[in-house]
Amino acid sequence: MFDDLKGRSAVITGSTSGIGKAFAEGLASQGVNIMLNGFGDAGEIEEFRAGLSEAHNVDVFYNAADMTKPDEIKGLIDETAERFGAVDILINNAGIQKVSPIDEFPDDKWDAIIAINLTSSFHTIKHALPHMKKAGFGRIVNLASAHGLVASPFKSAYVAAKHGIMGLTKTVALEVAENGITCNAICPGYVATPLVEGQIADTAKARGMTEEQVKKEVILAAQPTKEFITYENLCGILFYLCSKAGSGATGTHFAIEGGWTAK
């Protein structure tokens, strides 16, 4: 069903760990060439890059652009276009988190979360769109969150950024609706990523609970299924949105959150 993905090119921010890494693996398995981005150990990143390329016979490159620096973000998109001759798929996945009461929220953490979780997507989209318009094809997928639809205490910056992503998604979709380009958001619930593991520890400290209590009484309590969302759950939606089959979906969101926002 997704054979048309083969030979496409994708740039995925924050793809050296967690959901972004799973997206890179998933799209590579469908024959998509990948531009990786993110922080981490250089040796581990190179091992992942080389392994991905060899396993799926696709071209895989890595760009270490800092998502707080607009010039580096432009360089990421420019290199993707130069390497592959196109920027077919843009996945804005990079994100960080801080859990804290708002009256104690560090100013620098607020600024960093807004910069990485929201503003970086403006810059990637701004520079990717000319390439997509020229080709008459483009797929933009923004990783929002269930927190782009509802709020939780102690996550003011994250919730604000993810709500902003929802608005950005709709606006971009309207602007490019006649250009063969779609822009959508995926809103995951809790996935057992390194980011969430850190969030569990921070929440335990903020609420005076054990980490196990946080998992049961805070994290999975929000999801009626009482199960973490899996990478496979998210990749299925991603493949659809990036393929011809998903061409009719734009300016909308797909909530993969175990029933969280149905309440």
From TrEMBL:
One GO MF term on file is: 3-hydroxybutyrate dehydrogenase activity
Superkingdom classification of source: Bacteria
Entry's Gene Ontology BP terms? monocarboxylic acid metabolic process
Q: Which InterPro entries match?
A: 3-OHbutyrate_DH (IPR011294), NAD(P)-bd_dom_sf (IPR036291), Sc_DH/Rdtase_CS (IPR020904), SDR (IPR050259), SDR_fam (IPR002347)
What keywords are assigned to this protein?
Oxidoreductase
Q: What is its EC number?
A: 1.1.1.30
Signal peptide interval: none
Spell out the PROSITE patterns in the cross-references. ADH_SHORT
Family, per entry? Belongs to the short-chain dehydrogenases/reductases (SDR) family.
- The protein here is known as 3-hydroxybutyrate dehydrogenase
Q: What is the organism field in this record?
A: Parvularcula marina
